[in-house]
Amino acid sequence: MTEGTGLSLADAVRGATAVLAAAGVPSPRVDAELLAEHLLGVGLGRLRALMLGDTPAPDGYQELVAERARRVPLQHITGVAHFRYLELAVGPGVFIPRPETESVVQLVIDRLQGLAHPKVVDLGTGSGAIAGSIAHEVPGAEVHAVEYSEFAHAWAAKNLAPLGVHLIRGDLRDALPGHNGTFDAVVSNPPYIPAEAVPIEPEVALHDPPEALYGGGADGMELPTAAAASAARLLVPGGYFVMEHAEVQAGWIAAMLERSGLWTAVTTHRDLNGKDRATSAVLADPTALR
Ligand SMILES: C[S@@+](CC[C@H](N)C(=O)[O-])C[C@H]1O[C@@H](n2cnc3c(N)ncnc32)[C@H](O)[C@@H]1O
Questions:
Q1: How far is the centre of ligand 1, averaged over its atoms, from the C-alpha of 98 (Å)?
Q2: Which neighbouring-strand residues pair with 263?
Q3: Is 203 a domain residue?
């Protein structure tokens, strides 16, 4: 037992689960365990083993639980976001990477199979989740990343430097003009939320930076449209573009790409929940279109 709480680890986690559930946290038990794991510096398996005995609750646990009950994102409290094989440093000022984006990364990785030294760019890299994963998982890839926000850029720099990613601070609308027509793949999870669709979850509404959320315009399509235009500028003919978006935007994005006449193989992709959350296309070869 600790002097601070007098509670066993198991009792403290049980109590924390109730507190977090009452605060509306969507996964109260898991979050209660992850906060304890964070303080104890053990894995989840070891934590659960410790909970079978009379290990005391760690000092500071109640404070972290209270913070989470105020709906501060778990990743801001622990300072870490898990994404594919990476542990990314995150905190205020940067978008927390989401599980559905892991599938978008997989589409790029699958597409790059067989290319010895593919050149890839991630537009709006945030924490660097997409760019970092591709650099980590595709041997020989030359990976670039673009981020506009000063704060997100600082987090990305911390995460991407060890992975050898070329990060620039810039606007996805006109970034990397010296690299026009040279990338094998352009990937983006741009801001895309429509102006009026303010997210309900406090973790998102109060803690994800607004510049990471709202795509511009009533339909949120300004930045997704700009990302597609930049992809057409940056790719080699036959290069691959994939972009995450809201479910409601799937039809609009496919139509926009088809209408431009620049793309072939326009394909909508479902996420793990069966929702149309990404669209890919291949840049047409202008010589083949003549
Ligand atoms: C939805 S977040 C995605 C972050 C990251 N790619 C991910 O999937 O976790 C969009 C990112 O685009 C950045 N961003 C917004 N407008 C931008 C612009 N005009 N040029 C470059 N990046 C921009 C935001 O700061 C934010 O980091």
A1: 13
A2: 283
A3: yes
User: Catalytic residue positions?
Assistant: 95, 189-190
pLDDT in tens, 125-164: 999 999 999 999 999 999 999 999 999 999 999 999 999 9
Q: Is 204 in the pocket of ligand 1 (CB under 6 A)?
A: no
pTM over 0.90: yes
- Residue 207: closest CA among 49, 45, 77, 66: 77
Q: For 86-100, what is the mean pLDDT?
A: 97
Q: How far is the CA of 158 from the centre of ligand 1 (A)?
A: 16
Between CA 75 and CA 34 the distance in angstroms is: 10
Residues 55, 145 share a domain = no
Domain housing 124:
84-289
Which residues touch 198 (CB under 8 Å, ≥6 apart)?
Answer: 205
Tokens of 34: 């992850």
Write the CATH number for 97: 3.40.50.150
Identify the H or E element spanning 286.
helix 286-289
Q: What are 190-245's pLDDT values in tens digits?
A: 999 998 888 899 999 999 999 999 999 999 999 999 999 999 999 999 999 999 99
CA–CA distance, 181 with 282 (Å, rounded to integer):
13
